[in-house]
Amino acid sequence: MRLSVKAPAKINLSLDVLHKRPDGYHEVEMVMTTIDLADRIELVDLPEDKITILSHNRFVPDDGRNLAYQAAQLLKKRFNIKKGVAITIDKVIPVAAGLAGGSSDAAATLKGLNELWGLGLSMDELADLGAEIGSDVSFCVYGGTALASGRGEKIRHLPSPPNCWVILAKPTIGVSTADVYKNLDVKNLKHPDTEAMIKALENESYHGICDHLSNVLESVTLNMYPEVAHIKEQMERFGADSVLMSGSGPTVYGLVQYESRVHRIYNGLRGFCDQVFAVRMLGE
Ligand code: ATP
Question: Which helix (H) or strand (E) holds 183?
Answer without folding.
Answer: none
